[in-house]
Amino acid sequence: MFDAIVLGVDPGVARLGLAVVGRRDRRMTLVWADTVRTPSGLAEAARLQRVADGAAAAIVAHRPSAVAFERVAWNRNQVSAMQVARATGAVMVAASSAGLPVEEYGPSEVKIAVTGMGNADKEQVRVALSRIHGLLDVPVQPDAADAAAVAVTHILASRMRGIAKAAAR
Amino acid sequence: MFDAIVLGVDPGVARLGLAVVGRRDRRMTLVWADTVRTPSGLAEAARLQRVADGAAAAIVAHRPSAVAFERVAWNRNQVSAMQVARATGAVMVAASSAGLPVEEYGPSEVKIAVTGMGNADKEQVRVALSRIHGLLDVPVQPDAADAAAVAVTHILASRMRGIAKAAAR
Prior knowledge:
The structure is a homodimer of 169-residue chains. With 169 residues, the first copy, chain A, is α/β, with parallel strands linked by helices. Chain A has a single domain (4-168), classed as Nucleotidyltransferase, domain 5 (2-Layer Sandwich), CATH 3.30.420. Chain A has five helices and five strands. Chain A has helices at residues 44-62, 78-97, 107-115, 122-131, 142-168; strands at 4-10, 15-24, 27-37, 66-70, 102-105. In chain A, a hairpin with a 4-residue loop joins β1 and β2. In chain A, α1 crosses α2, α3 crosses α5 (142-168) and α4 packs across α5 (142-168). At the A-B interface, α1 and α2 of A face α1 and α2 of B.
């Protein structure tokens, strides 16, 4: 049905944003999105297991051809950044164990790819996802919306890399 | 055979230190130690999968009752710290999926628990592991030695917590 189908991941321990975006010809479709939430009272290792299991279940259900991660922003506080990095590692293993290629994009890379502005705010990203890229029903939940944005970024970037490679031949 | 058996983990993507330490009465024994190495040419997600799989295999082989991690030192460079955090997350999922409790100890906590000095160097830790704690054949490889030290730390700390709890009753 799709030429490419990408699982976007906005990593986190309390909330993991997930979104599956498909591309056919030049049209993109939001196939599914969800946020895995873990209770703060649970041990960190168990929370990491839940987010990894949530991502693994999404991979089984939607059979993406690649997984795209939003890279942690290092200007945030260290405890938060460490938690996000741990969640990233946990979910990367789920992706790699499923045999899928993994790509990462920084926050400003996602913003510029989706909106044309490296400093776009969340609302501008939402508007661009629907009006420029044709995604209906952009998730209201911010982490799932970020996951959709990074999936769209990967689809756009992969297409450009494909064109660049073909031109270089 | 043992009253407690702990898998110590010194997390990393290029090298993951693993050591299994058993305690019987007050005697500690180094049961096994190894370093999982991953090639630098491999994609990060695949390297994370290898370290997680290595830890999972050690859990299956040695059936520890707990897993103790050395916590990343945040004064190191950010790229390195992020990689270590990702490896920590990947291995924590392996521990949690096996149903094991996870504990973490910072570098100075390990040093003071093992040597009595929060600023001990690696050689002092090695000497203390063999002469104070009775571990024969402390691993020569530094990451595996660090893993043995964090396993010993967990055994000592758990014992003290047990005594403290009993005294509070």
